[in-house]
Amino acid sequence: MDAIFLDFDGVIRHWRTEAVREAEAELGCPAGCLFQCAFDRQRLIPAITGRVTHECWQSKVRQALAADWGEDAASRLVSAWQAATWDLDHALLSDIRAKRPDRPIVLVTNATSSLGADLERCGLGGYFDSVVNSSEIGVAKPDAGFFEHALARVGVRADRSLFVDDSRTNVAAARDLNFQSIHFEDRATAWPAIVEILDRG
């Protein structure tokens, strides 16, 4: 493999959402209502393609929640969302780097304008050989244009590239373009598949 393309959330970064769930329960809101609102395509797509900022996206989510549950509930839910923490799989990154130290590791993520700051907070600001952020290039996975941009960024072919993502849709789209693709559900099942592909050379 000439390059390794990794998704961020769900592969490297794993969000802790307990505080959001607790806030929903305390407020009498349906479980999952915040993320259902936030990831509604009408609000999400503009944020991950750079048409609105991260802050604008969260503001629109708060407004939508307020329309359904009131201003106080909306503010508390968004505050819980903003305060959410995460776990990072440093071991996965280290193991991949150790397995193929001479190959670029590229972060390929559907993210908002907050990605750069998030990477700094994670201590990963300078870790990746390249970062492809959908909100910076104006196109998001699973659009073929995203993958084509990522390949051009590092000058490699899809059939010589490994792609790892937690979205089956994104994995299928990459496979259609001839990437060696792995659907990440958990490390225990994904790592052997990653090793098998990397061992091919």
Automatic annotation (TrEMBL):
Gene3D superfamilies named among the record's database cross-references: HAD superfamily/HAD-like
Native organism: Saccharospirillum salsuginis
Name the record gives this protein: Hydrolase of the HAD superfamily
Pfam family name, one: Hydrolase
